From TrEMBL, chain A:
It comes from Phyllobacterium salinisoli. The chain crosses the membrane at residues 31-52, 58-80, 87-106, 112-132, 139-156, 197-216, 247-266, 278-295, 301-318, 330-347. It is found in: Cell membrane. One of its GO terms (molecular function) is transmembrane transporter activity. Keywords: Cell membrane, Membrane, Transmembrane, Transmembrane helix. Pfam families: BPD_transp_2. One of its GO terms (cellular component) is plasma membrane. The keyword Zinc does not apply. This is ABC transporter permease.
UniProtKB/TrEMBL annotation, chain B:
GO terms for molecular function: carbohydrate binding. Belongs to the bacterial solute-binding protein 2 family. Residues 42-297 form the Periplasmic binding protein domain. This is LacI family transcriptional regulator. The keyword Flavoprotein does not apply. GO terms for cellular component: outer membrane-bounded periplasmic space. Keywords: Signal.
Length: 351, 350
């Protein structure tokens, strides 16, 4: 594909043209969400105790680290015009798998992580295969995968959560432990401004966000994924291996979800039976809110990261103000709806 | 009364001891229909089954059924209220003599339970109120659970402290534990609840950890966290550890599992006490209650399984590392003398 075609495809996906001068409405569309985020932070700083501190900045990031990582993964599938409903259960399956490897099989941290990443890759490949070659619609294929994994993660222990000293179905006692190296992923903190401040999960989130952002925006591979998402047929006619791009999007999503699962296991220190549905919903919300950031009106990694942060700031701030959990779901829903209005109504009018 | 019970208990143990020698002759001492236990068919109709509690409950039901020698069928509706009602009809069609209803919704189970009673089947309900005089209710006493944990909190911290409370309304056992918390706050005006939070978003421990982190940042003077559900307590503990406040905050909770024991035993763990009913024992009691009904005895309408207080000190002093050791070293946790007539085989006796 030559440069001219890429440009046309960019225009089709709604990439901004920085040529003409911005009107006020365009400014609102472009920076409205960031201003809202800033206002929110100022509001909480003024009205809650302890919000304005490096520690609280870090734990807000930590609280969104896992959903944020999952959201970055699902962004990749959104970019190729797909969707991945299985990420939540991939994360919890990875959590169970890493616990199983260490506690039951007595493996080390490296093996546990390797197994998790492998699960992510395999699930991504199967999802991609089902969608591309079996022609199963993306929502349905990944929905099936979700149920499959929710069941699968419970089979080895017959539905028990995994912890050191647990009794196995055959009556024996699991004697392995979480290796300290693995737990450090959830508990070690790097010195930054203050000693012992930034947890590993936040560093991983930031690194992955930068990697996927660079990958999607500035590499040929990433731009081609946008091209596939905006017009699959056109991309195909231009000679792009569309199927390969789509499958790799699901592999990225699976791997990111399994990394999220590793961090989850390291934080909890056990393999918890969980469907991961809340992880799925929160990360999808973050990715969709991301559409509205900078007026992109399309899936983008920077927006996803901001979207996750936005939800985190809001929820942690509300908790500090002692708001009950159901108001938090309500507010989360409200933010999502506003973001979608930003994306669809306001941005559409511009064109 | 206590002495009589103890004697009965010893008698039981003696009988069981004898049975290991006597074998067949023991079965003959059993009241009908348990003199021919192979012909007795019972069904467990479940609403909830996922998670450690329900797994342990099932193992208790299985153990007691095996000790009695009866044929147990397990029907699992996996949180489908309508299906659970259908499964009661299915059990009736299977020709079982007794049914245990484990959890469920009052609205859907009330009529199904009545149909079973009308068909001449003995029914026992665990943790679901089917409003039927002929159906005994097996309960773990959630109010006692909360009371034990809170009494320990007052013993450790005095009658006035700043507290954080983890609660989600609308979940029956948590609502009952909440009643006790409200009573305690009224009784001890020095208890100052500065924050209330909680969520059921799964993984629960992770979501609660995020919330608790905010709460202790906003209220660093909290000294007591009342988290009357072990998943909540686990989440609060993660947050307290991450904030480096494990020496200034104490966590009191309810329920217990092997991983909870590990968390309580960690060096400088903030999680100091929990009150728990052993789900395995609750499962055993459910089957025993049903067996008494089948033998024509009256177990009473409310069969309550008493909870046990488990402190960090107990776990350290007796070097308890998992649920099995807990049962072995705290005998009151492994066995409850509830629904235990002399002829009843004790599944814990080896």
């Amino acid at each position: 594909m030559n440069l001219e075609q890429t440009k046309t495809l960019n225009a089709a996906t709604g990439a901004p043209h920085p040529v003409h001068k911005l009107t006020i409405r365009e400014l609102a569309i472009k920076y409205g969400f960031l201003v809202l985020l800033l206002g929110l932070i100022l509001f909480f700083c003024a009205f809650t105790n302890g919000f304005a501190s490096p520690q609280s900045a870090v734990f807000i990031l930590q609280s969104v680290a896992i959903t944020g990582i999952l959201a970055l993964g699902v962004t990749a599938t959104l970019v190729v015009g797909g969707f991945d409903l299985s990420i939540g259960s991939v994360a919890t399956t990875a959590m169970m798998a890493s616990s199983y490897v260490m506690v039951v099989m007595g493996g080390d941290a490296f093996t546990a992580m390797l197994v998790c990443i492998l699960i992510g890759v395999v699930v991504g490949l199967i999802n991609g295969f089902l969608i591309v070659y079996m022609r199963v619609p993306d929502l349905l294929a990944t929905l099936g995968m979700m149920f499959l994994l929710v069941g699968l993660q419970r089979i080895p222990t017959e539905g028990r959560s995994i912890a050191t000293g647990m009794t196995m179905p055959d009556g024996s006692v699991a004697s392995g432990t979480f290796s300290p190296a693995f737990l450090a992923l959830g508990r070690h903190r790097f010195d930054f401004v203050l000693p012992n401040l930034v947890p590993v999960s936040v560093v991983v989130l930031i690194l992955l966000a930068i990697v996927i952002w660079f990958f999607l925006e500035y590499t040929r591979f990433g731009r081609m994924m946008y091209a596939v998402g905006s017009n699959e047929r056109a991309a195909q006619l231009a000679g792009a291996p569309v199927n390969a791009y789509k499958i790799s999007a699901y592999v990225i999503s699976g791997v990111f979800a399994s990394i999220g699962g590793i961090l989850l296991a390291a934080r909890l220190g056990r393999g918890d039976i969980a469907s991961g549905n809340n992880l799925l919903l929160d990360s999808v919300a973050a990715a969709l809110i991301g559409f509205a950031v900078l007026g992109a009106a399309k899936p983008n990694a920077f927006g996803t990261a901001i979207g996750a942060l936005f939800v985190g700031v809001l929820l942690q701030g509300l908790t500090m103000m002692n708001a009950p959990y159901y108001t938090q779901d309500f507010v989360k829903g409200g933010v999502l709806v506003i973001a979608l209005v930003f994306t669809f109504a306001l941005s559409q009018r511009r064109r | 009364m206590a002495i009589t019970r103890r004697i009965l208990g010893k008698l039981t143990l003696g009988l069981i001891g004898a049975s290991t020698f006597g074998g067949v002759s023991f079965a003959a001492d059993m009241p009908a229909p348990f003199d021919k236990p192979g012909d007795v068919k019972i069904a467990l109709v479940r609403y909830l089954s996922t998670g450690d509690f329900f797994q342990s409950y099932l193992s208790g039901v299985e153990a007691q059924a095996k000790a009695l020698g009866v044929d147990l069928r397990v029907l699992d509706s996996r949180q489908d209220a309508a299906l659970q009602a259908d499964m009661v009809d299915q059990a009736i069609a299977l020709g079982v003599q007794g049914i245990i209803i484990q959890h469920g919704l009052k609205e859907s189970m009330k009529e199904a339970a009545q149909r079973a009673v009308d068909a001449g089947i003995k029914v026992v309900a665990f943790d679901v109120d089917v409003e039927n005089d002929q159906i005994p209710q097996v309960e773990q006493s959630d109010r006692d659970l909360a009371r034990l944990a809170l009494e320990q909190a007052i013993k450790d911290n005095g009658e006035s402290f700043k507290a954080g409370y983890v609660y989600v309304a609308g979940i029956a056992p948590l609502d009952r534990r909440d009643e006790t918390w409200k009573e305690f706050k009224k009784k001890y005006p020095g208890i100052n609840e500065v924050a209330q939070f909680g969520t059921m978003d799964n993984p629960i421990a992770n979501s609660v950890a995020n919330q608790a982190r905010s709460v202790i940042s906003a209220n660093p003077d909290i000294t007591v966290m009342f988290a009357p559900y072990d998943e909540f307590a686990k989440g609060v503990k993660i947050a307290v550890d991450e904030a480096g406040m494990s020496s200034s905050v104490k966590i009191y909770s309810a329920d217990i599992s092997t991983s909870d024991i590990a968390a309580m035993r960690e060096p400088d763990s903030a999680w100091v006490a929990t009150a728990a009913t052993n789900p395995t024992v609750v499962g055993q009691v459910s089957v025993r209650t049903l067996a008494m009904l089948l033998a024509g005895e009256d177990p009473g309408h409310n069969v309550i399984v008493p909870p046990t207080l488990i402190t960090q000190k107990d776990l350290m002093d007796s070097d308890i590392k998992n649920m099995e050791e807990l049962g072995a070293k705290l005998p009151q946790f492994a066995h409850a003398d509830v629904a235990m007539p002399a002829w009843m085989p004790n599944p814990n006796a080896k």
